[in-house]
Amino acid sequence: YYLRGTLSAADLHRLTTTLLHDRIVEVAHTFVLDADSSPNGERLTTVDVVLRPGVTDTPAESLLAGIFEIGMSGVDQAATGRRYALHGALSPDDAEHIAGTLLANDVIQTFYINEPAPPPFTSTDLSTGAAVAQVPLAGFDRQGLVELSKQRRLSLDGDEMEAIQEYFATRDRAPTDVELEMLAQTWSEHCVHKTFKALISYTGPPPGEIEPATTTIIDGILDAHIRAATETIDRPWVRSAFVDDAGIVALDETTDLAFKVETHNHPSALEPFGGANTGVGGVVRDVIGVSARPIANTNILCFGPEDTPEGTIPDGVLHPKRIADGVIAGIEDYGNKMGIPTVNGAVIYDPGYTANPLVFCGCLGVMPAGSHPTEPKTGDRVVVLGGRTGRDGLRGATFSSMESDHQTSEVSGNAVQIGHPIHEKQVLEAILIARDEGLYNAITDCGAGGLSSSVGEMAEELGAVVHLDRVPLKYPGLAPWEIWLSEAQERMVIAVPPANLARVAEISADLDVEMTVLGEFTGEGILRMLHDGDVVGEIGCDFLHNGIPRLQLTAVWEPPATVDTDLPWPDDPTATLLAVLGEPNTRSKEDIVRRYDHEVQGGTVVKPFVGINQIGPADAAVVVPLDTHREQGPTPGASLAVGINPAYGALDPYRMAWAAVDEAIRNVVAVGADPSRISILDNFSWGNPRLADRLGSLVRCTQGCYDAAVAYGTPFISGKDSLNNEYTGVDGRKHTIPGTLVISALGIVPDIANTVTSDLKASGNTLYVAGTTTEDLGGSAVAGLANYPGGSAPGPAIGAADGYQSLHAAITAELVVSCHDLSEGGLAAAAAEMAIGGDMGVEISLRELPRSADITDSRTAAFSESLGRFLVEVRPENEARFEAQLAGYPVGAVGQVRGDGTITITGLDDTPFIVTDVATVARAWRQHLEPGT
Amino acid sequence: MKPRILVIHASGTNRDREVSWALELAGGNPEIVHINALRDGGSNLLDYQMLVLPGGFSYGDDLGAGKLWAVALRHRLGQDLEDFVDSGRPVLGICNGYQALVKSGFLPAMNGASDQQTTLTRNQSGRFECRWVDLAPEPAASSAWVRGLDGPIYCPVAHGEGRFVADSDVLATIEQEGQVALRYKVPNDTAAYPANPNGSANNIAGITNPAGNILGLMPHPEDHIVPGQHPNKHRGQTSGSGLPLFRNGVEYAAQT
Fold first, then answer.
1. Which residues are within 8 A (CB) of A133 and not within 5 positions of it... i.e. 6 or more apart?
2. A868, A929 contact by CB (below 8 A)
3. Neighbours of A500 (CB within 10 A)
4. Does the pLDDT at position A339 exceed 50?
5. What is the distance in angstroms between the Cα of A240 and the nearest Cα belonging to chain B?
6. What does the pLDDT look like over A739-769, one tens digit per residue?
7. Cα distance between residue B127 and residue A119, in whole Å
């Protein structure tokens, strides 16, 4: 800890013992900082790591608060840092390497070897001059405008720059930096999703077919493929889709649920902890932004393989292991500290994510039906609640809309924000009181683009005047455009009638929340920004929100060249099963998930791990809002699950979409969700959409989204895209990600008394497979083990929508004692996972498996990943009723549960095919965990 | 007449709503009050019959778990809290609340001392742990909080700094004076983890002050008060075994 001020020795001792250390397990040393403050000694190297000036130092803030609390004066500055002492013979180069790759992240920190770091006090003047600059555009030709856009990192193209040039030409003046930077944020891919709204000329085969290729014009994939599905399906329980910060559906007559999943890929690549941390904070604010209380978090993470050789990592990219460690710690920190249970997710490892990791963060919220106000009124005050504003997250929206290269971390370092979950928790409590007392007319969160985008959005109809000098700052010296754009975290903006201001101020003060009145909604349709009384920007809302020229893009999709070799099967099917179970994408994630609090709020009734020893995988989580949890009688719950399989996308993005939608739905149906009450979210992480092949696969994927959503009657209620996930190394090599679709499902469970888990329950029970198995090995787990690029991805499951309704009826009639969906690793892996959960064995005959005629190979039958399938445990006395209930959907009684733990799968030729036991498969699935866990 | 219970809200606490539900089911009348209201005189601690310090991350645990909350307890509530405790009224600290009571010296408060005598520090596993544990009420415990519990209490832990540490003589005194209230049930001492999820000395999960009216524990009985919360509900196991502890506290509060 660094302290500045005048303290008596006695005060320093009191401060140290009261605030700085735990005397039972720690000792404290205090000294005056000078050149000798590093213990230089034999075989000793010290590395001091401190935050860069301007990066939020939360412990230092808390320390100053604590010093105030104990009534001590004399300390005017505090800061924190970390000193590592390395013992042993170490060359300066080695020390440099260790410090740079393991101890400090250059994006937010600096390090000093064998010398004390200068204390990073926040008072350090970071002034860039509070002046406002004019940015002349007149006279520039298109080329010149594009150059200007590049220089200022506006990431605006020629058409967009020309539109801005023309707007200010007609006003006969140059834009200010405040106006230009605001337009760049508001028009960024991140904020306005121009690719999804673009007019696209697409050349490719019809949806689902692989020929013939034709060229068609698509009038915006968001409208034509995503929103259109929601409108066609037209479910009455959808309260809000694609309008608010989050999608909203009904839980029951009196209660609504809000669900949103966000991406935070670019920041997580640069600073994994802060990037993921604020990714969670951001999506939680989206839910607060619809006046809801967060009740569950999810996360889907895509990393490069943990064993990637150091030498193969592109320059300027962090090692996947370091990224994974930081991201997981960041998610743990924010969710746990806010008291939101993290209940569901997925982790995918693929070399395609080494340079561009993906971080999807989801949040579910609850609110009284219809309690979310959305209409600001003229005269309402523009009020900001929450954290102070600093130079953090500048230009984040444009940064995350660009490709990256080895210099990105240097030029975009301050695009990374640092989270403060406690501020957000207190803001949440204040907002909910204000909501219940009806104190505001509209609300939105401060995310990408900061105040410029949140106030801009809210004032879209009315216009507003905003005084930038009233924004509370973390430190002096911010220019007006920096205040306007800063993406400092934990801030919400609400529209408050003057009569309610006093009460909002009172609530805020009671909860340690800072509240500031920035201006008011005027009704002029103009957004006017002032600083110290001077107008520093004035833009018509219509131009701001509708002035952006529509993009016209070209897209092409061609099926990959067919591979004429067959899948090289390993010899031993039992060894294949064990290998599949131990594979990083399939194996237990318990080492990660137990670091997330999944019990807080007391409503997690189907937990991430199930079964007698709570080590079996759950298909989906089920949560009950505390407010609607009943001791007796039917209690509705919300089930959450995801579907993702980028390996299918390499073969056919259309089929990847079907697979992701089906898997997400399958998972929530397996735990008891009503198939007619499921809504889904889409999250696309793709490469550069200006490249025809990247955009072509995206179009192909959204076609699958439409067809699958309509087939299942499952509406999209919200979504988000993150494009330009491409990285160019120093060698000029481009690294793009596999086009990745994440589908998140929210299913309503009518009564949590009728939920089902995947663990086997009782010896002698009958096992059924529901759904047809066809030859679907392309992109499968076994294909991955064999590095086999061929085969075809699973196609649409015929009749699955009706089949799921029948299965749900069986679950509701309590005919199902356990149920697990068939996905990675097919029937063999699913059976093993159910065995692990129940600590029991199984006896299965592949001859009883409902399958297409062309399946003659037991390996295909056991490991194929066809969609629409479940493995279901039924008591013998209920067999007839179960079969009657499922009439119309193919089911086969494939075997039974064994109490002795033996696992036997008999082949199509009626000879033993896979022979093992529950202890062996459990070891394969969990061998990477530490002993005892 | 239901006992009035103050569930204190320090910025960053987050299990206040579920513990309030537990207290209602146990027959109490809980109110969640921010510590600012107690400082400003908006509410008066001594108007209540029970005090609960819920779990969470008070002030972000920025200077160590419960550290700043401990400072606030001594400097904001100070005398009121001491009077409340001396009057024999029940106080319950769960997880972060327990950490604050230990670091402010309200627990274990051996020989009436008010300085920090023990601590709760980083889990032996080196990471945050969320998992279910069995808690055995200590037969020798004198505290009304655990009296008559036919235990064990089955409930989750969710913490990164829950390892109970004390010098050997301090530990011996706590054991002798019957201040150990709850222990993690471990199959055998060689394989204590994860049954003892944090490496606590003597498998201690919860302790009391000498008078027994203050109980602190790391696990969360408030997260297992209705049968539906049981992890093996789907295997026919339902108990809600966290509730009796709160009933004990509420009955005790009603008598004070």
1. A176, A177
2. no
3. 19
4. yes
5. 28
6. 999 999 999 999 999 999 999 999 999 999 9
7. 29
User: CA of A336, closest CA in chain B: separation in Å?
Assistant: 8
Q: Which of B25, B67, B231 sits opposite A19 (nearest CB)?
A: B67
CA neighbor of A894 nearest in space, from A843, A859, A837, A854:
A843
Q: What is the pLDDT of residues A482-503, one digit of tens each?
A: 899 988 889 999 999 999 999 9
CA distance linking residue A547 with residue A189, whole number of Å: 15
Q: How confident is the model at residue A192 (pLDDT cuts 50, 70, 90)?
A: confident
- From the candidates B234, B243, B246, which should be mutated to test the interface with A, based on the most A CB atoms within 10 A? B234
Joined tokens for residue A170: 């007609």
Per the confidence metrics, is the pTM higher than 0.80?
yes
CA A889 to chain B, closest CA, distance in angstroms equals 26
| φ, ψ of residue A729 in degrees (nearest 5) | -75, 175
A627 burial type by CB count under 10 A (0-12 exposed, 13-18 middle, 19+ buried)? middle
CA distance between the termini of chain A: 35
Angle between helix A421-436 and helix A501-510 axes, rounded to 10 deg: 140
Strand partners, A740: A685
Pull the structure tokens for residue B226.
């209705």
Tokens of A51: 């935050």
> B129-137 and B119-121: which strand pairing?
unpaired
Q: Do B60 and A614 touch (CB under 8 A)?
A: no
On the question of a cis peptide bond just before residue B152, with omega within 30 degrees of 0, the verdict is yes
**Residue A915 tokens, joined:** 């022979």
CA distances, B237 to each of A119, A492, B233 (Å): 57, 44, 5
| Inter-residue contact A510 to A433 (CB < 8 Å) | no
pLDDT digits (tens, 9 = 90+) for A863-910: 999 999 999 999 999 999 999 999 999 999 999 999 999 999 999 999
* Phi (first) and psi of residue B185, to 5 degrees: -80, 115
For residue B69, the chain A residue with the least C-alpha distance is A66
pLDDT tens-digit profile of A365-404? 999 999 999 999 999 999 999 988 887 777 666 666 666 6
Could you give the CA distance from residue B9 to residue A428 in angstroms, rounded to a whole number? 14
- Sort A391 into a burial class: Cβ within 10 Å, 0-12 / 13-18 / 19+: buried
> What distance lies between CA A688 and its chain's CA centroid?
20
Which of B8, B9, B11, B36 would best serve as a mutation to test chain A binding (most A beta carbons within 10 A)? B11
Specify whether the CB–CB gap between A566 and A860 falls below 8 A: no
pLDDT of residue A411: 47
Rounded to whole angstroms, the Cα distance separating B17 from B30 reads 10
